[in-house]
């Protein structure tokens, strides 16, 4: 079943959307010996159909053999560009340069904060064009796990998505719509429970619909996920986001702050995963140059928004109870990312590079049955703010 | 959007399916002060629609106000039955008695193994009928987290599911189909990395379609998830499953063993979460009495299949590396349950009792970037068996 998810689904850490020939599962590349092990056929998709079908056929249907999809190739060197040689789209070129510069400067700043941990780099490409650079700092002095990825993807959007979107008649059957996507995405999980997690992701999309003008749009955001509230930290973080927004449009911050609160919502808990920031998607009703500059400004604001906070909190003394609460909130982070995040779930379903997609998950997380923080406690205050988003400025 | 998932989706730890008037999110009951906090409106579902919609409307759509759904009420005492007073379905009555007896005997056996930890019990009911008993032993001497739940649910199946299943014309619009579901579900996560996790779940469904005879079916299974392979343990576990199956039909074990390998498959990893056991669903093409006896036999086989293994392994010495590997495999367990398990995902989307659904998650779990066990190591052997399911008998 082809998921009818928009190509703009990659709002997460996922390396955007892979070029997919058939959206079925693919062999994992994360297994040491995987390539020489035989891969199982896909599980019976028939179990997803309504149960009545099996009143007629109670035996589990045997799955069809897995269909191969284009997988990434690991590279030993970073190429100058992941764009195709014939590429002439100027915004594509400048956007790729921007995210690669941002990756360099963010990683450099984080290594300076951590002092001990160093980023490990994996470079990959796809035979059909595109690729990515994944950088991970794991188990450093300050950071439990920090991932900063860039990717450039040439893909094909399922026709259903395009048809639904254009309100075309169901009789019309346009072919698959080629698209281009480039983005930077990052999740930083510090060790100290008083130092917050931060996530950011900025991306640019283009489509080439047959007999239609090229469509393009920008998306992204930066959001803060602490386990404990330090109001000064949250105000600082939001004020940097607001400042970046205000340079372009005074309506941006209030709109994108609200959008962020709406997006990072764990429905089944009735909570957000954190205290928000900004989030936007599908932006194309502004000047393209302005939005490129805006995305650049946002990406360049991550370090000034976050580093002063983590510097203040990274060495604060804490006890086991603080750590356990941080781990519980990390469990909520896992729930959001695996259940709701559109980029992650789309990436998982369509054979994206798993290690790049799931590097957003924390090194460790915790689930306690029916945990209820004591009313009025610091833990309760955080939870209250995740249930009832506040205006921080 | 109403998920067109079969009512038999509850193959997990989830307390089956709640009676739903509107499948939207509901306030969390797990938050200490939640009932007195104001709840947020639901996030904009419009973000799930294809991105093109926002080319016409770039602003995030404000969500509609949350619609109330029937939530559970916490009870101070276990009722004799969760069945409605007018209940006359004999199999319903006997199935409820069976799962409640099984819950008692499993919990008693586990407390005897743990010696220190005791089960905490939560009893809940729904105003429209049905309810459940959740029992959790957390942070015991042997068990990190052990949950054993029973539930009895009166629900309504979305008409789409019924229509699709019956291959009826799309013009026919049957009303929602009432159903009844009762089940026991359990996940036991021990502390020692050499002691395996076990999950089991047995359930019985009935539907009352208008102008159609009552439909019924059984589902369930028991599966083993170790972090390290002790072949004797796995053989013992599978042999007890086979023995239970063989009493009823010699085809059961091979079919249900295969079904289990197919079901507990983490598509994006190309791995199973564990080493299988048995799994079946939608069974109704046998004598109803036979299947009731079979489900009873399976439920009664959990303790003989599992307890000897955990007794052998619970006190084995281990080091940090063993523990870290166990935690990594627990991460895979979380991935399966949150991304693929039909009962869990359906429960999360439709407002089931969150604490009962998610008690299946381990107390703690771990994700390392690009972890690859050394070829030939014990960790690698486990992974190999998860990628290439074996015949253990």
Automatic annotation (TrEMBL), chains A, B:
Its main location: plastid. It comes from the Eukaryota. Homodimer. It catalyses: coproporphyrinogen III + O2 + 2 H(+) = protoporphyrinogen IX + 2 CO2 + 2 H2O. The keyword Nucleus does not apply. Gene3D superfamilies: Coproporphyrinogen III oxidase, aerobic. PROSITE patterns: COPROGEN_OXIDASE. Residues 30-64 are annotated as: Disordered. GO terms for molecular function: coproporphyrinogen oxidase activity. This is coproporphyrinogen oxidase. Residues 30-52 have a biased composition (Polar residues). One of its GO terms (biological process) is chlorophyll biosynthetic process. Belongs to the aerobic coproporphyrinogen-III oxidase family.
